[in-house]
């Protein structure tokens, strides 16, 4: 956990320096300049599939870089300001509210999270009425899901706190500093292993939506179209390889020297995490579709994070050019 926190502090400092320094806008970047990804989370085993796809893209002659920011908000601002070319998230509401010229182009993962409470304090959703809950970040899938359940259950949280990283939130649960949060499968398994029956998962049914997607400035998508095509090809290939054999994540992590300074016990969770993720269908193989966009909007509308009009055009939020090009369509 200490090393993970050091990753976060280092990434935050790097992000602030990057923003302060400015940098070339995507539209002005030379074709041999790296595609720069802004990731609003800490470096963890969850990011290994993306890191592997980046390494494979580099092998095909497209340089890439990644910076881990302390929130999705900061990452989005980096993309808007030209300090990064690609962001990670699902910024539907941001696009609708701001009219920003960014579009999603690859669906990385589906929403599968585990609302969990300390059973010594709470036992069900109703117990959270008037209580504080902790999620990943503003506008994240974790917040949308907790907002949706607030509406469904007819309750009102006293406050929503934002703490990036499922591992960090799970650690806070184990330490007793928070009592209600939402985590991914790997962090929930950790809570079960170390806390036993102390931590209880609250029921969530009938929820399907995008957790994370890749998005970029429209000028970057146009100016770097061929590089984007190659990147999406490697994303599709990597997702398919992991779906066929989750153990390949461990092999490729070692091959490329990825996340080498994470604790051994965290690294040991990588393959089990992807085995469970594949079994639960977290990582879709198609990269996205207009039907997926409509499903996302329906979910976010129900969660109170999106104002859906009578007519919603998927292309107001997504561009399918890179995905269609990668699929040879």
Automatic annotation (TrEMBL):
Keyword terms, alphabetized: Signal
Signal peptide from the UniProt entry: 1-30
Domain SsuA/THI5-like: 58-246
Intracellular or extracellular location(s): Periplasm
PROSITE patterns per UniProt: TAT
Major subcellular site: periplasm
Transmembrane segments: none
Superkingdom of origin organism: Bacteria
GO terms for cellular component: periplasmic space
Family: Belongs to the bacterial solute-binding protein SsuA/TauA family.
Name used for this protein in its record: ABC transporter substrate-binding protein
């Amino acid at each position: 956990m200490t090393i993970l926190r050091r990753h976060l502090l280092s990434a935050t400092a790097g992000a602030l320096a990057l923003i302060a320094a400015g940098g070339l806008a995507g539209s002005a970047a030379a074709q041999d300049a790296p595609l720069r990804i802004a990731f609003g989370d800490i470096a963890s085993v969850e990011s290994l599939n993306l890191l592997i796809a980046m390494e494979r893209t580099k092998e095909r002659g497209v340089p890439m870089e990644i910076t881990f920011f302390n929130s999705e908000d900061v990452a989005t601002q980096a993309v808007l300001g030209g300090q990064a070319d690609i962001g990670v998230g699902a910024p539907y509401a941001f696009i609708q509210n701001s009219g920003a010229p960014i579009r999603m182009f690859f669906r990385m993962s589906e929403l599968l999270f585990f609302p969990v409470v300390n059973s010594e304090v709470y036992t069900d959703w109703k117990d959270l009425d008037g209580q504080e809950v902790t999620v990943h970040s503003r506008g994240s899938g974790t917040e949308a899901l907790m907002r949706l359940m607030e509406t469904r259950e007819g309750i009102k949280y006293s406050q929503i706190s934002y703490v990036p990283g499922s591992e960090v939130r799970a650690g806070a649960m184990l330490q007793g500093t928070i009592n209600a949060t939402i985590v991914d499968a790997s962090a929930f398994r950790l809570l079960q292993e170390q806390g036993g029956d102390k931590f209880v998962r609250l029921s969530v049914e009938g929820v399907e939506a995008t957790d994370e997607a890749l998005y970029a400035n429209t000028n970057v998508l146009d100016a770097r179209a061929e590089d984007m095509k190659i990147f999406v090809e490697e994303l599709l290939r990597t997702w398919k390889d992991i779906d066929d054999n989750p153990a390949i994540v461990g092999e490729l992590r070692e091959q490329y020297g990825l996340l080498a300074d994470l604790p051994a016990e965290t690294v040991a969770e990588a393959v089990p995490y992807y085995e469970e993720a594949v079994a639960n269908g977290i990582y879709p193989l198609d990269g996205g579709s207009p039907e997926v966009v409509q499903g996302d909007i329906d979910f976010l509308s129900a969660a109170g994070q999106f104002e859906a009009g009578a007519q919603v055009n998927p292309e107001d939020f997504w561009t399918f050019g890179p995905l269609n090009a990668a699929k040879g369509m």
